[in-house]
Amino acid sequence: MTPLEQFLLRAEALLQRVEAVLPPSYPREPDWKRSFAFRWRKRTSGGASYLQPVTHVSSISLDDLHNISRQKQQIEQNTRQFVQGRPANNVLLTGARGTGKSSLIKACLNQFAADGLRLIEVDKEDLAELADIVDLVAGRPERFVIFCDDLSFEEGESGYKALKVALDGGISAQSDNVLIYATSNRRHLMPERMSDNATYKHGGDGDLHPGETVEEKISLSERFGLWLSFYPFKQDDYLDIVAHWLGSFGCDAQQVEAARTEALQWALQRGSRSGRVAWQFAKDYAGKHPNE
Q1: For the chain, does the N or the C end have fewer beta carbons within 10 angstroms?
Q2: 169 CB contacts (<8 Å, ≥6 apart)?
Q3: What string of DSSP letters covers 24-51?
């Protein structure tokens, strides 16, 4: 073997080892036919971010969500307006954990995917790239909901201002085929501290006027046109959700009735009667008591 052939073999072996540690190559714009849900991925080793199709999308439907009828009706109507090309609002869903905020957005996607609705999930750490995402999809015929789950900010985070600009206030017009749906346990998306109260100003007539700190904290949530609030479930509401999920797992009426006491004990152990806790209990119970 000649020295040149030896060199080429070593070079090929080296390239194979380098390729093995490099991240896979993705096009910035995905194959839109592969899915109706996508995640925005940011490379840790540099390079352009990209949209990754979600191949296994949650199958939850609006009928699966109980005891949030008002919130369900409002977001369904808003989303219907959006997919029909009519004016619609960005939506902020806030309140108690496990009460269906994220599930409601996923259910809306399943409800309207056939009408051209698409969803892009964006992590809070990547919100600084919102403008890039909007530019990427602005010319598409589909209607896109940018989904930010469990959203909250600390002081000085870069994504905070990027989200404000995307919602309202940038020099470019908002794209009419993009809305932002966000969930949060905080009404104003920012931590509220006792010291904020010191910035309130007392008017001559006794009125209270918020100071600059408070104004800044509420300015982001005010950019969402539709606010939906979620509250902890009552005991009967919780048991109704348990019964629904037990039925979906194949349990009969007798098993559902027999599970009530255990369902309440399960919730007591977790300190919450939420829809998420009900679903987790139903999976555990149905797995232990198959319907024979």
Answers
A1: C
A2: 223
A3: PP--SS--TTS-SEEEEE--TTSS--EE
- CA torsion sign for 120, 121, 123, 127 is positive
C-alpha–C-alpha distance, residues 285 and 279, integer Å: 10
In angstroms, rounded to a whole number, what is the distance separating the alpha carbons of residues 235 and 214? 36
* C-alpha span between 2 and 81 (Å, rounded): 71
Q: Are strands 201-202 and 208-209 parallel, antiparallel or unpaired?
A: antiparallel
With beta carbons less than 8 A apart as the criterion, state whether 67 and 104 touch. no
Lowest mean pLDDT among 146-160, 197-211, 219-233, 248-262: 197-211
pTM of the predicted structure, to 2 decimals: 0.78
Element counts in the chain: helices (H) and strands (E) = 10, 9
Binning pLDDT at 50, 70 and 90, where does residue 213 land?
Answer: very low
